[in-house]
Amino acid sequence: MQALDTIFNALSDPTRRAILDGLMRGEARVTEIAEPFEMSLNAVSKHIRVLEDAGLVTRRREGKEHRIAFSPEPLDALARWITGKRALWNGRLDRLEALLSEEPRQ
User: Which pLDDT score, from 0 to 100, does residue 99 have?
Assistant: First the structure.
Protein backbone atom coordinates (compact mmCIF):
# COMPACT_ATOMS: atom_id res chain seq x y z
CA MET A 1 0.00 0.00 0.00
CA GLN A 2 2.98 2.35 0.44
CA ALA A 3 3.36 2.54 -3.33
CA LEU A 4 -0.30 3.52 -3.73
CA ASP A 5 0.09 6.21 -1.05
CA THR A 6 3.06 7.62 -2.95
CA ILE A 7 1.14 7.61 -6.24
CA PHE A 8 -1.93 9.26 -4.69
CA ASN A 9 0.31 11.88 -3.07
CA ALA A 10 2.01 12.62 -6.38
CA LEU A 11 -1.33 12.97 -8.16
CA SER A 12 -2.85 15.14 -5.42
CA ASP A 13 -1.16 18.31 -6.67
CA PRO A 14 -2.54 20.13 -9.74
CA THR A 15 0.94 21.21 -10.87
CA ARG A 16 2.15 17.61 -10.90
CA ARG A 17 -0.95 16.51 -12.81
CA ALA A 18 -0.30 19.28 -15.35
CA ILE A 19 3.31 18.12 -15.69
CA LEU A 20 2.10 14.58 -16.39
CA ASP A 21 -0.42 15.87 -18.94
CA GLY A 22 2.40 17.61 -20.78
CA LEU A 23 4.64 14.56 -20.66
CA MET A 24 1.92 12.38 -22.16
CA ARG A 25 2.70 14.18 -25.43
CA GLY A 26 6.32 13.09 -25.19
CA GLU A 27 9.56 13.38 -23.30
CA ALA A 28 10.82 16.88 -22.41
CA ARG A 29 13.74 18.71 -20.84
CA VAL A 30 13.21 20.05 -17.33
CA THR A 31 13.38 23.62 -18.65
CA GLU A 32 10.63 22.81 -21.19
CA ILE A 33 8.46 21.35 -18.46
CA ALA A 34 8.94 24.49 -16.34
CA GLU A 35 7.98 26.97 -19.10
CA PRO A 36 4.20 27.13 -18.53
CA PHE A 37 4.49 27.47 -14.75
CA GLU A 38 4.99 30.69 -12.84
CA MET A 39 7.45 29.19 -10.39
CA SER A 40 11.16 28.70 -10.10
CA LEU A 41 13.00 25.93 -11.90
CA ASN A 42 13.90 24.59 -8.46
CA ALA A 43 10.21 24.34 -7.51
CA VAL A 44 9.39 22.49 -10.74
CA SER A 45 12.33 20.15 -10.09
CA LYS A 46 10.87 19.32 -6.68
CA HIS A 47 7.54 18.43 -8.31
CA ILE A 48 9.38 16.23 -10.81
CA ARG A 49 11.20 14.49 -7.93
CA VAL A 50 7.85 13.62 -6.29
CA LEU A 51 6.65 12.18 -9.61
CA GLU A 52 9.91 10.21 -9.92
CA ASP A 53 9.55 8.83 -6.39
CA ALA A 54 6.08 7.58 -7.35
CA GLY A 55 7.48 6.00 -10.53
CA LEU A 56 5.25 8.20 -12.71
CA VAL A 57 8.19 9.69 -14.62
CA THR A 58 11.67 8.58 -15.56
CA ARG A 59 14.75 10.73 -15.98
CA ARG A 60 17.40 10.24 -18.64
CA ARG A 61 20.59 12.28 -18.78
CA GLU A 62 21.71 13.47 -22.17
CA GLY A 63 24.93 15.40 -21.60
CA LYS A 64 24.06 18.26 -19.27
CA GLU A 65 20.35 17.97 -20.00
CA HIS A 66 17.86 15.90 -18.09
CA ARG A 67 15.06 14.42 -20.19
CA ILE A 68 11.88 13.47 -18.37
CA ALA A 69 9.36 10.93 -19.71
CA PHE A 70 5.95 9.75 -18.54
CA SER A 71 5.83 6.23 -17.10
CA PRO A 72 2.25 4.84 -17.04
CA GLU A 73 2.86 1.60 -15.12
CA PRO A 74 2.03 3.03 -11.65
CA LEU A 75 -1.31 4.27 -13.03
CA ASP A 76 -2.07 0.70 -14.11
CA ALA A 77 -1.56 -0.47 -10.53
CA LEU A 78 -3.75 2.37 -9.30
CA ALA A 79 -6.48 1.47 -11.81
CA ARG A 80 -6.44 -2.17 -10.66
CA TRP A 81 -6.80 -1.05 -7.02
CA ILE A 82 -9.68 1.30 -7.88
CA THR A 83 -11.42 -1.41 -9.94
CA GLY A 84 -11.21 -3.81 -7.00
CA LYS A 85 -12.66 -1.24 -4.61
CA ARG A 86 -15.41 -0.34 -7.08
CA ALA A 87 -16.47 -4.00 -7.28
CA LEU A 88 -16.51 -4.25 -3.48
CA TRP A 89 -18.61 -1.10 -3.04
CA ASN A 90 -20.96 -1.90 -5.90
CA GLY A 91 -21.69 -5.25 -4.25
CA ARG A 92 -22.33 -3.61 -0.89
CA LEU A 93 -24.57 -0.95 -2.41
CA ASP A 94 -26.53 -3.60 -4.33
CA ARG A 95 -27.13 -5.50 -1.06
CA LEU A 96 -28.22 -2.29 0.67
CA GLU A 97 -30.61 -1.49 -2.16
CA ALA A 98 -32.09 -5.00 -1.91
CA LEU A 99 -32.56 -4.65 1.85
CA LEU A 100 -34.18 -1.25 1.51
CA SER A 101 -36.56 -2.48 -1.18
CA GLU A 102 -37.67 -5.34 1.15
CA GLU A 103 -38.61 -2.97 4.02
CA PRO A 104 -42.32 -2.40 4.39
CA ARG A 105 -43.38 1.08 3.35
CA GLN A 106 -45.31 3.09 5.91
Answer: 83
